[in-house]
Automatic annotation (TrEMBL), chains A, B:
Keywords: ATP-binding, Ligase, Nucleotide-binding, Purine biosynthesis. PANTHER family: PHOSPHORIBOSYLAMINOIMIDAZOLE CARBOXYLASE (PTHR11609:SF5), PURINE BIOSYNTHESIS PROTEIN 6/7, PUR6/7 (PTHR11609). The keyword Nucleotide-binding applies. Catalyzes the ATP-dependent conversion of 5-aminoimidazole ribonucleotide (AIR) and HCO(3)- to N5-carboxyaminoimidazole ribonucleotide (N5-CAIR). It catalyses: 5-amino-1-(5-phospho-beta-D-ribosyl)imidazole + hydrogencarbonate + ATP = 5-carboxyamino-1-(5-phospho-D-ribosyl)imidazole + ADP + phosphate + 2 H(+). Its EC number is 6.3.4.18. GO terms for molecular function: 5-(carboxyamino)imidazole ribonucleotide synthase activity; ATP binding; metal ion binding; phosphoribosylaminoimidazole carboxylase activity. Belongs to the PurK/PurT family. It comes from Cellulomonas gelida. GO terms for biological process: 'de novo' IMP biosynthetic process. It comes from the Bacteria. This is N5-carboxyaminoimidazole ribonucleotide synthase. Homodimer.
Amino acid sequence: MNAPVVAVVGGGQLARMMVPAATALGIHLRVLVESPTGSAAQVVVDAPVGQASDEAAISAIAEGADALTFEHEHVPNALLDRLAAAGVAVRPDAAALVHAQDKIVMRRRLTALGVPCPRWAPVTERDDLAAFLADQPDGTAVVKTARGGYDGKGVRVVASPDAADDWLAAAARPGGVPVLVEEKVPYTRELAVLVARRPSGEVRTWPVVESVQRDGVCAEVVAPAPDLADATRDEALAVAVRVAEGLGVVGVLAVELFEVPGAAGEPPRVLVNELAMRPHNSGHWTIDGAVTSQFEQHLRAVLDLPLGDPAPRARWTVMANVLGSTLEDLTHALPRVAALDPGAKVQLYGKDVRPGRKLGHVNVSGDDLDEVRARALAAAALLRGETL
Amino acid sequence: MNAPVVAVVGGGQLARMMVPAATALGIHLRVLVESPTGSAAQVVVDAPVGQASDEAAISAIAEGADALTFEHEHVPNALLDRLAAAGVAVRPDAAALVHAQDKIVMRRRLTALGVPCPRWAPVTERDDLAAFLADQPDGTAVVKTARGGYDGKGVRVVASPDAADDWLAAAARPGGVPVLVEEKVPYTRELAVLVARRPSGEVRTWPVVESVQRDGVCAEVVAPAPDLADATRDEALAVAVRVAEGLGVVGVLAVELFEVPGAAGEPPRVLVNELAMRPHNSGHWTIDGAVTSQFEQHLRAVLDLPLGDPAPRARWTVMANVLGSTLEDLTHALPRVAALDPGAKVQLYGKDVRPGRKLGHVNVSGDDLDEVRARALAAAALLRGETL
């Protein structure tokens, strides 16, 4: 056997969930894990321990690999450029990844590509922010750090420039993280499009989904997004493809979107909120709900294999996240979940329980959306330690 | 984390394919593998090396496990009894397993349970066989060794008692393997029922499938079995449940059946051919074609968790085995298979290529049986190294 080797930086649940697809296709996964007992390390045979900032560790896993990829964006781009120059298939490459690492770089590039975005501006001075706020209908806007934010971190709704003083001061220091401001989009809901692209150019999209956020974190995903106007769907898919192609993404790209009301008599529009250049929470439904999961597709894409069919396998699939739990160990809830719902597809991440932490998810598929959603939420509630 | 631990004896593809289900449910797999580079060893983190005949090795993996189970039946029953007496959850236990190990024990017990079987007789003397043959309409019958046969090995169609002389002589030696003879059933096709049972008694069956054999080996499985009379289906399911309950099986049981013509004006009947007390080739379609795969169900059953929904996820699923290949490494065919059929679900076992060896399989699901079947066979052909 001379299996293809995919090296993955990061040992969280996204790397963990690559295991089934890699096992099926005979792909050898080599995962750089932060801890020998972490989520991916529990289930990956070849899992050297090292940090994503450790250039020697990344170089070591890339050695002899058919592709080097990532389960998060916190990776040293200069090293990736050197590895690419030395012949490593870095996928996505640093030139693409930077758009998922730096929101200012992303906004500039998307604007240049004509991709619909919220109005935005880089902010270096207090006065920049004051001017932007003065332009807003309600005098508020969203300030973000350009790098390092996720799941609502590094994002702040402000009504006064004072509220960003700490970030602006930090940004002004050498090596500081730049700040940007965006309009507070009057969105009706959040959508997401997952798209995969391989180096030879083939692109595949899954159906547009609705992502339901609670406290700034994705709580559930409904696939496909209900009551979505055809034109809005087509725009969302076209935007995702334009981003994937325009940024030269390889692998899975998640494009998080705001749905906003259209002009009078027109269907709703979409604006790009965030990008993630890897399998993403908004695509976990594909594990059970699509012919090809995002994890299999990511592996195919980074190995430049023809992409799999992203068609849904059921009319509706709802994914409910398990965010925190009162249980010490989520497997203790398996008897209750299994007794409640023999068709609930549970995915546990093997992570220590902490408040609000993403510990697992549940997928349920079926013909009746209300029922499917209720079932997914009920199973997730049991895994959080609630009683029904 | 304090994950449930399932210890598995045997490191072939059946243990390998437990990995995705175990990963999803947060179950820790500990697999006793024959070789550190074998099929399961490639993808199981906790995979001590040892033979299934090595009592110390089996005792070691059972230590602290929530259940001890098997991917084949070649295990020392006396040890299993001792482990069970010492508190290990041996699932299935030796009292059940013996029916999958010894065809004479199986036939005796099934006959006592009133389960329809081919006419049969144990054979110790040449004259026993001669008498049985004289009773057959065409003077031929099927001679089998009671133990050690699989995939057509240990099975011989004979027209004369001479043809079994070697086996009878071997059987007569101390520790020899006994011999039985069965009528050559005039079957129209082979069916199989996969059933799962957990210790607390819950039983679930998947739909009856048709198993297409070539050269005594399963080549493809069609789920559900096409053109199956309702009464025949009901009988097949009832037979499987009766066997699972009657033998006290825990875990997945495969009941291989002959479909035989009914009396005039009556629907076809079934006769039990073979039993396997573990996930089985006839159930590989469930990985992609059922809400709960046989591998997830086996893990649930041996841990006495409520069983999952075995409902099919598509009208038809066809599984095509990859038996041998002209390729040195099956992953070399992935680009061709993926380009041919984006919806073909490929499962490679990571095994060295040998003529006729089960190296992988392909599942295809859809609404049109002819198309689904053609697609599965075409993808499997590419993996065998054929050109289309």
